[in-house]
Every structure is written in structure tokens, then in C-alpha cells.
Amino acid sequence: MTEVSVTKDATPPAGDALVALSQVNKHFGSLHVLQDIDLTIARGEVVVVIGPSGSGKSTLCRTINRLETIDSGAISIDGKPLPQEGKELAKLRADVGMVFQSFNLFAHKTVLENVTLGQIKVRKVSKSQAEEKARTLLDRVGVGAQADKYPAQLSGGQQQRVAIARALAMDPKVMLFDEPTSALDPEMINEVLEVMQQLARDGMTMVVVTHEMGFARSAANRVVFMADGRIVEEAVPDQFFSNPRSDRAKDFLSKIL
Ligand code: ADP
Ligand code: MG
């Protein structure tokens, strides 16, 4: 077997780091859910995070926008450490857009309001400007005609595209996607992945937790494989899928491919 070059080849230059995690550790009680995580994400890079259920992928995402605190180590966005509270934290959450498996739209707000609210409250944009931007973004993700409806009136795929538009409305520096298509009916998965593909092509910095290996192959600059709270392996997609090094990754891939 040929030697696969890993980690270093796939790691971006530190100078261009937009997101940097250094020796991050996190426990839930006695469970060591993130163990010595070092991860640097360059501006414009698309990193796909894969791994078995319970390996810490969601927790990793949630620490990056400080939905979870960490026990030790450091996280910085664009060279600045994560703020602890208050207005700075709200700004951080706007800078780090997050899209969840369960859409998480505001049920009692219209689609348009879902996409204007954060702009008005956090970014201090006027209502008319926020609406203009919201309509542009909703058109871009293909749900412009749904602007005046409520989330429950939309399909899952449409709701998830609204959630993406809502995050984009804040002009985030980086977008985190935590299994954005896992709750969708199969016929709706592609419409969401296509929006994400386009975002990637447009140069958005993205961290994507997904089981969609087609997306990983075509959109990712790098695949990060996690198991038991650790980054076990990272490589460019071609290398990772054709020649995984670790037994954990081989085992995982044999089950899902
Ligand atoms: P993944 O997204 O890879 O499936 P998670 O990050 O959701 O993994 O969870 C990693 C581990 O941490 C799991 O064992 C999970 O049960 C546990 N865990 C996650 N969130 C909490 C929490 N809030 N309290 C206690 N344990 C948690
Ligand atoms: Mg998860």
C-alpha cells in the first residue's frame, strides 16, 4: 500500500486561519467529549466533518459559536478569542452562522421575518434594508415565493433553505452546518445540498457535518474524521475516501459507502 500523506498536506497555512481551535477539551460529566482538538480552518475553506454517532461532531460545532463552553484550550475566529457574554457574544453568533438538523426557525414569525429579525436586532439594519436583503437571499435559495408564509406551511427542504438564508443575512464569516439534511425526506436533500454547493463555490468558509459523502467528495477541501472525541484523521477527500489510514475510518466507511 502506498503511504498516504495526511494532516500536514491538508492543513491550511496558519496565517490564513479564520477559525482556529487549539488543544480544545470538553467534558460532559465524566464523558470526555472533545479531546485535544487542534483544527484550523482557512478563509474560503470547506471542511466536512464525519464520524460515528456520538463522536463529538455536534459538540465541536457548538463550541465554535459558543453554544457550549470548553474546559481547556482556545478557540479564535478571525484572530480573536471567542467572547464570553453580552453584545459581543451576539455578534459572534452572527459572524458564525449555524444551520441545524432541525431547522430551528421561529415558528410564529413569517419566513421574511425570520430572515430580517437578526439583521435588525444584531446588525442594526433598517427594516426596509433588511427586507430587501432578505428577499434577495430568499430568491437566491429558491424560496422567494414563500416570504409571507409561516415555517409550518413549508416543506422541510424549503424550511432548511430559509434557515440558510437567515444565517447568510448576518453576513457571517463562517457557516456551520450540523447534519443539515438528516431530517429531510430523500427528495428534498438535493435542493439543500445544491444551495450549499453554490455557497462553497462562492467562497464561503464552511464547516459541514454530514453523512452525504457525495457532497463531501465534490465540495470539501478537507475531510476531518472524528471518533470518540478525537480527530483521528484528516485528508483531502480523494485521499480519505480511496485510502483511509486508520482502522476506525476504514470501518466507518465500510458501513456507510
Ligand atoms: P455527534 O454529533 O458526533 O453524534 P455529539 O457531539 O452530539 O456527537 O455528542 C457526543 C457525546 O456527548 C455523546 O455521547 C452525547 O451523548 C454526549 N452529549 C452531547 N451533548 C450532551 C449534553 N448536553 N449533556 C451530556 N452529554 C452530552
Ligand atoms: Mg450530531
Automatic annotation (TrEMBL):
Which InterPro entries does the record cross-reference, listed alphabetically? AAA+_ATPase, ABC_ATPase_HisP-typ, ABC_transporter-like_ATP-bd, ABC_transporter-like_CS, MetN_ABC_transporter-like, P-loop_NTPase
Q: Where is the ABC transporter domain?
A: 19-253
Q: Give the matching SMART domains.
A: AAA
Might you give the EC number(s) for this enzyme? Answer: 7.4.2.1
**Which GO cellular component term is one of those annotated?**
plasma membrane
CDD domains referenced in this protein's UniProt entry, alphabetically = ABC_HisP_GlnQ
Q: Which reaction does it catalyse?
A: a polar amino acid(out) + ATP + H2O = a polar amino acid(in) + ADP + phosphate + H(+)
What are the GO MF terms of this UniProt record? ATP binding; ATP hydrolysis activity; ATPase-coupled polar amino acid-transporter activity
- Keyword vocabulary terms for this entry: Amino-acid transport, ATP-binding, Cell membrane, Membrane, Nucleotide-binding, Transport
Protein's membrane topology: Peripheral membrane protein
* Intracellular or extracellular location(s): Cell membrane
Family membership, please give it. Answer: Belongs to the ABC transporter superfamily.
Task: Give the protein's recorded name.
Answer: ABC-type polar-amino-acid transporter
